[in-house]
Amino acid sequence: MLKKSVYLPGLALRQLRDDPARAPRLAVRMLARATPGRPGARLARSRLAVPRPRVVTRENAELRALLAHDPPVPQTPPAGAGAAAPAGGPARKASPADGAVLQFVTNALPNTNAGYTVRTHRIALALRAQGRDVHVATRLGYPLSQGVGDARPRVDVDGVAYHRLLPWLPPADPVRAIERGADLAERIVDEVRPAVLHAVSNHHNAAVALELRRRRGLPVVYEVRGFLEDSWLSRDPSHRETDEFYRLTRELETRRMAEADAVVTLGEAMRAEIASRGVPAEKIFTVPNGVDEAFLEPLPDASGLRAELGIAPDAFVAGLTSSFFGYEGIDTLIDAAALLRDRGTPVTLLLVGDGPERGALERRAAGHGVHAVFTGRVPMRSVRRHHALLDVFAVPRRADRVCQLVTPLKPIEAMAGGIPVIASDVKALREIVEPGVTGTLTVPEDPEAWADHLEELAYSPERRRKIGQAAREWVRAERTWGAVASGYRAAYAFGARAAADDSPFSR
């Protein structure tokens, strides 16, 4: 409690120092948290509660500082080089093939429920089932940095240990933040004694792991789950690839990939992109998204939820579970539903999730007279109840660069439940949808094309059943977490060999 009461005011002061114009929006978010019930929820979704982006000149200055930072190579071998050991103590011979793993992530369960955190958790559980001792450390300051007043140093979820790196005050500069993160993480290294450090997007997490490699001689595997600069590019039409933020972020991410001993990513489109940046192909490993085997079980009865949400028993329901960002293309799905209504084929949209575009999407649906049910975020345990309401799962992603490259998790969960998927025809989605067999692909950002395919599926229940069944069998054979997690074994072993070969103390 004491650390929370010191850190949160310090964070607010730093934000205001960075940009005083952020004060009104910060005040609205704090008021929303303090207001109970629906009024607080409505306030949290208002435009005034959306955080004001940091001043880009300050962002760019921090990126330049990180790129300029080049810590010296230790003059003496790190404590326990090649295996983690307490400072001054004997090194434990931990094999990367079966030793402990310490992951570094941006956010995590139980405070953040998103595709990123679900993958982290399911991979940790799958590796534990294979005999690995897996620990996870969240980014410096989290979750206090998100305004969540939970200052526990460790939280266990389903037996997975989530460690928090919580300083008393947020560091004043990005280089100091990396060093402070490594300082706090060293205590976990002493406790866990990992054989490998597994950093997950973005470059901040990789930098902390690499600093620990410098200090302790541990191999670093960097898992690239997305491209930060392309996500930024897709969120505002005024953003350009020539902008300094884009160029600096891309350069920094690429440097972290090159510095890591091995790189893991989610799909072949992402693997090709990483290799095109000069990262040796032999050190890039693909570990795709998967699902827990519970998703393969028959969907639960959701008749009560259908009535609760006001969805008619005979309604044709299309929808998704997603974070509501512009590049998800949910506006295209709403426009397609409006076209179907005009054709006399009404469709109910079930839109599960939240994000900065939610308010605009609600207004769009209301303006078009589309019956759209917005549920907000739901707990993981409720996802399959919502899946049970769907006749079709939609992935209407735009043709943006980030959508071409990054393969999402949510449609695979739906496919495991036997729900037919209709998705935008972009490279990343071609990796999980075989047209006419495990799903349907259509033109991105084209409401009429979407309406045509939705209408075809609406009147073809037997085709929906066959596609859904084929999708479930594909997931069962290739995309459970237990099946995909085995791919880390090769990445960890490669990373350990590379770290040993590159160490100045092994020559």
UniProtKB/TrEMBL annotation:
Residues 115-290 form the Glycosyltransferase subfamily 4-like N-terminal domain. SUPFAM superfamilies: UDP-Glycosyltransferase/glycogen phosphorylase. Pfam families: Glyco_trans_4_4, Glycos_transf_1. Residues 69-94 are annotated as: Disordered. Residues 78-94 have a biased composition (Low complexity). Residues 306-474 form the Glycosyl transferase family domain. InterPro entries: Glyco_trans_1 (IPR001296), Glyco_trans_4-like_N (IPR028098), Glycosyltransferase_grp1 (IPR050194). Keywords: Glycosyltransferase, Transferase. Gene3D superfamilies: Glycogen Phosphorylase B. This is Glycosyltransferase family 4 protein. It comes from Actinomadura sediminis.
